Amino acid sequence: MSDSENGLPDAGRRTFLWGAALATAVPILTEAGLAQARMAGGMGVPPVDAVLINANENPLGPSKAACEAIANIASQGGRYDRNDVQGQFIKTYAAQHGLKPENVAVYAGSGEPLHYTVLAYTSPTKSLVTADPSYESAMLAAKYAGAPIKKVPLTAACGHDVKAMVAADPSAGVLYICNPNNPTGTITPRADIIWALENKPAGSILLVDEAYIHLSDEQDVLDLVAAGKELIVLRTFSKVYGMAGIRCGLALGRPDLLAKLNEFGQNAMPITALAAAQASITDPDLVPSRKKIIGDIRVDTLSWLKSNGYKLIGESHSNCFMIDTGRDGHGVVEAMRAEKVYIGRIWPVWPQAVRITVGSADDMAKFKVAFKKVMDAKAVAAIDSTHTDPRAPIGVGGKTFLS
């Protein structure tokens, strides 16, 4: 039987099979994967009483309503989504944000659509343009696509330098903006994002990662999706909704833009994740209450750091921030681990800076004690500053992403 008889034109079928094969070969890395690769590279399994502020997780966990929704639907887990829980979730989400259902694609977290967008729209002749530092996952996908990677330094305020990003490559395939940024927690003004969208190279896609947008006061850009612009917006339920271990995320864009992501395949969503997500977005108090809790803890921690003379990088509006330690960042990470406080990884462009996740009030109280002890002590270089994990994918666990 020919490809055409199978319902796909020859070229279309070849593209689909190539995309599916490539997606299978490319590891989808998330904050969890990056943090675990770091631990596997020599940090070991944390003790039960450790403070874990290394992976931008939400210590509040899923809401009570989300937990109840999971419990209520779990008995149906022996079957696939026979009651169209996903369809109902998509309709609810779209209606809340002025979108059409066809603008919404659901994934197990935002890592998959992030990778698939880069794979779909970059190539050896179409680069990925990204800020430096920023979330590394897009760069890994670009490496597997054989796409050039153009890294652009942040502005003095640690926002994305959109003019430099647009100018970085007239043949760019994807311009990636994480807003608020990971690892700095800093904001790129909406006006800058609109400018980038209006001035980007023809045929390129603006990929706006709004994983942390709920934790800031910045206006999102979903109205640009509704207006049919050339961008894809990513959302996740791992951060403010506390569902990092449950896995639900979204790609939001024009149907024709999202269609190219379908070439890389997609597993069926867990009905438990869909039910938890539906319960989360229908609770009007969830986002504002959690934004305040996390924001108050962040402000308190940053005030303490400033009052003690520690150097912060940028102004965070998220659940993470960066500290310039003035010494080998890997050594600080290891010294903190010895105090049972696990902090985030190092970005090559800032080898003396460490990323801290905003944990619970108790977590941050313990962080303060441990950090002061470490910084008051004599600086000690890390035993192995590469922390390479032989089991990690190319570019992960070593100097490229977890240096």
Describe the structure.
The chain has 2 domains: 28-56 and 286-402, Aspartate Aminotransferase, domain 1 (Alpha-Beta Complex), CATH 3.90.1150.10; 64-281, Type I PLP-dependent aspartate aminotransferase-like (Major domain) (Aspartate Aminotransferase, domain 2), CATH 3.40.640.10. It is 40% helix and 13% strand. It has helices spanning 10-25, 31-43, 64-73, 85-96, 111-121, 137-145, 162-167, 190-199, 222-226, 255-259, 271-281, 286-307, 329-338, 361-376, 399-402, and strands at residues 51-53, 104-107, 128-132, 149-153, 174-178, 205-209, 231-236, 249-253, 311-313, 320-324, 341-343, 353-357. Strand 6, helix 9 (222-226) and strand 7 form a beta-alpha-beta unit.
List strands and helices in order, with pairings.
Blueprint lengths: L9 H16 L5 H13 L7 E3 L10 H10 L11 H12 L7 E4 L3 H11 L6 E5 L4 H9 L3 E5 L8 H6 L6 E5 L11 H10 L5 E5 L12 H5 L4 E6 L12 E5 L1 H5 L11 H11 L4 H22 L3 E3 L6 E5 L4 H10 L2 E3 L9 E5 L3 H16 L22 H4 L1
Parallel strand pairs: 1-11, 3-4, 3-5, 5-6, 6-7
Antiparallel strand pairs: 2-8, 7-8, 9-10, 10-12
Helix pairs in contact: 3-11, 4-11, 5-6, 12-14
Structure keywords:
disordered N terminus, three-stranded antiparallel beta sheet, Aspartate Aminotransferase, domain 2, alpha/beta, 12 strands, Aspartate Aminotransferase, domain 1, 15 helices, single chain, globular, seven-stranded mixed beta sheet
